[in-house]
Write a structure and sequence with these properties.
By secondary structure, this protein is mainly α. It has a single domain, classed as Phosphate transport system protein phou homolog 2, domain 2 (Methane Monooxygenase Hydroxylase, Chain G, domain 1). Helix 1 runs antiparallel to helix 4 and helix 2 packs antiparallel against helix 3. It is globular, with a radius of gyration of 18 Å. The N terminus is likely disordered.
């Protein structure tokens, strides 16, 4: 077996895990939030608080990048990973905020399927981020995330077709369009994060 010595600041890994976990909790809360309308302001407040928590964790990671003598991976890879993980939370908050500010009052058929996939992909992302500690098993998890993202793309197309089916008033379509796009973007951001993990694994294989 080839011997490799990779000096690591182990303090990064719990922060990565924490940021990924915030995204899962936000996804689950938003999934529940959209199960009924109108939107409960308490749910929005909760998501906003979690978004701020995620921002604080991301700031701690960026500070650690600046202050660590030796980082576990390339600094630019860590920064890219943090940005992607932070974007997931931002996009989930955007979906919640938009629905609340637009005063959506009726459910949108097919949206729950996308939200189910959002929860699944963020849960897979937790395992993907955890794989950074050993750089093993990431390929299978990345493949799973890619599959879920493809399913979400198909669900997005179905929801879009539903929105423009003529069943909804034009104003309702405008309200829901931004919400659906934010959910899709959140899933895409998870895939972006998994791509960074895969690139790190390849570099250090």
């Amino acid at each position: 077996m080839r011997f490799r010595l990779i000096p690591r600041d182990q303090g990064f890994f719990p922060l990565f895990d924490e940021l990924a976990a915030v995204a899962v909790e936000c996804a689950k809360r938003v999934q529940q939030m959209f199960a009924t309308t109108p939107i409960d302001p308490a749910d929005i407040d909760w998501v906003v608080a979690q978004d701020r928590n995620g921002d604080a964790v991301a700031k701690r990671i960026r500070g650690r990048i600046e202050n660590s003598i030796v980082t576990p991976f390339d600094r630019e890879d860590i920064q890219e990973l943090v940005n992607a993980l932070d974007n997931v939370i931002d996009d989930i908050r955007a979906a919640a905020d938009t629905a609340y500010l637009h005063h959506v009052t009726s459910p949108l058929a097919g949206l729950q399927e996308m939200l189910d996939l959002l929860v699944q992909v963020t849960e897979a992302n937790v395992r993907c981020i955890a794989s950074l500690t050993t750089l093993t098993e990431s390929n299978a998890i990345v493949d799973e995330i890619d599959r879920l993202e493809s399913e979400a793309d198909a669900a997005y197309r179905r929801v879009t077709a539903e929105m423009f089916s003529g069943k909804y008033e034009a104003l309702e379509v405008l309200k829901w369009k931004d919400v659906v796009e934010a959910v899709e973007q959140a899933i895409d951001s998870v895939e972006d994060a998994s791509d960074v993990v895969q690139a790190i694994a390849i570099k250090h294989a």
